[in-house]
Amino acid sequence: MDAIAAGRLTAAELERNFSDIHVPLDRKRALIEASRCYFCFDAPCLQACPTGIDIPGFIRKISTDNVKGAAVTILNENIMGGACARVCPVEVLCEAACVREAQEEKPVQIGALQRYATDWLFDKKLQPFTRAEPSGKRIAVVGAGPAGLACAHRLSMLGHDVTVYESRPKAGGLNEYGVAAYKMPDDFAQHEVDFILGLGGIEVEYGKRLGRDVSLADLRRDYDAVFLGVGHEGVNALDMEGETMTGVMDAVAYIERLRQTKDKRSLEIGRRIVVIGGGNTAIDIAVQAKKLGAEDVTIVYRRGPDHMGATRHEQELAQTSGVGIKHWARPVRLVGHKGQLKEVEFEYTQLDENGRLMTTGDRFTLLTDMLFKAIGQNFVPDPLGKDHAEVVELADGRIRVNAEHQTSLPGVWAAGDCVPGEDLTVIAVQGGKIAAHSIDRSLRS
Ligand SMILES: Cc1cc2nc3c(=O)[nH]c(=O)nc-3n(C[C@H](O)[C@H](O)[C@H](O)COP(=O)(O)OP(=O)(O)OC[C@H]3O[C@@H](n4cnc5c(N)ncnc54)[C@H](O)[C@@H]3O)c2cc1C
Ligand code: SF4
Fold first, then answer.
1. CA dist., res. 350 & res. 342, Å (int)
2. What is the band of 391 on the pLDDT scale with cuts at 50, 70, 90?
3. Which atom of ligand 1 is nearest the CA belonging to 426?
4. How far apart are the first and last CA of the chain?
5. What are the phi and psi torsion angles at 340 (to 5°)?
6. Ligand 2 in contact with 108 (CB < 6 A)?
């Protein structure tokens, strides 16, 4: 087989490899797990949840078999509670704070219980939310990712009419196009979108892009308020000669193809893969490359394990999936033959006495068919428009917002990856929710 080839594994092997990474709890196991909760007063898990879900409250409802009540408690604070139960790094959020973690290093499985409750409600196709009396106000939301959908849902509940402008053909943002396939199988992202839109009052204009089909000036003129949830569109480059060679790829773009391809046997993957980066995207592409049948997958990161953006849990997942992680090295040369990547040369790195990263001069080479760049994404402000009056102020290269998620431009709010902060689904949902309440207060005052 060629160095880069499709169909390395059989359809059955691929189906097994990309099946749900977590086995959902059944009723009996959910009840046992719920019984482990102390229902702490001032529960630390609740403080650690970015969306402020009443965790002891929903676990108590599960323990009395009130699963619908549990799901409503979760979704009230986090309308993407189903997705977050699958993708949240609970090991550094609620479960890290659980008192059982401190006592016995075995936290209550909050994420699994959250999934048990929300899946129950989705399976029953129940719609527990209703809309308030119509306010007569219309709000434009740009981007149908977690931030945009959370904002749109809350605004609709509060009685406002929402139009979502989404440049892609499907809603869900990175839940649909980015998150690792084994975390979100069975088209879960679209089921969740259907549930959110099922409330009513939210129209999605697919294929409509801010900056191309509609301008910020149009939206500010035609709507009572505007929310921006456009995420990141740019990816950081290695800035190395040879970056355009066949075999050098952007991890996020490849994952998007992987998520949208029905037949994973059609995806071409190399035999020997190198991934550059230390965040969750690096782990996700490395693990998925392995699951597609790559023989040798190595993540190379310029600092140590404690500096990696990926949690310890994610790093372990990579290692148990057969991915090697090489720390303290950075790529210095891409070597190709007839336009095809063949080798990557690395230099070892270390910290000097002032804590600055420096190279040691020692080098090594990895034979490589495919190199995935996973060195971060960035916000591209172009869609906001060139007109000076419409340019929203930036901070750290993203849209600057206050605690209410208001931008510097009157009548415009923003949240999610396009504003400064951690890039997590749960943070985007919370930002969208806060912005919706702020918009509501501003329109009613
Ligand atoms: C590969 C990868 C894996 C990840 N895995 C996890 C994980 O396991 N757990 C976790 O918590 N987080 C994870 N994240 C991060 C998480 O997905 C994001 O933080 C979250 O999706 C941010 O939501 P958002 O709504 O701000 O942006 P997005 O999800 O990016 O949604 C933005 C939406 O806006 C649309 N849009 C963009 N520009 C325009 C425009 N000009 N006009 C109209 N529409 C536009 C886009 O098409 C998109 O639908 C991952 C990210 C990546 C890249
Ligand atoms: S910290 Fe743990 S034990 Fe206490 S309420 Fe939260 S989940 Fe239950």
1. 26
2. confident
3. 11
4. 67
5. -110, 130
6. yes
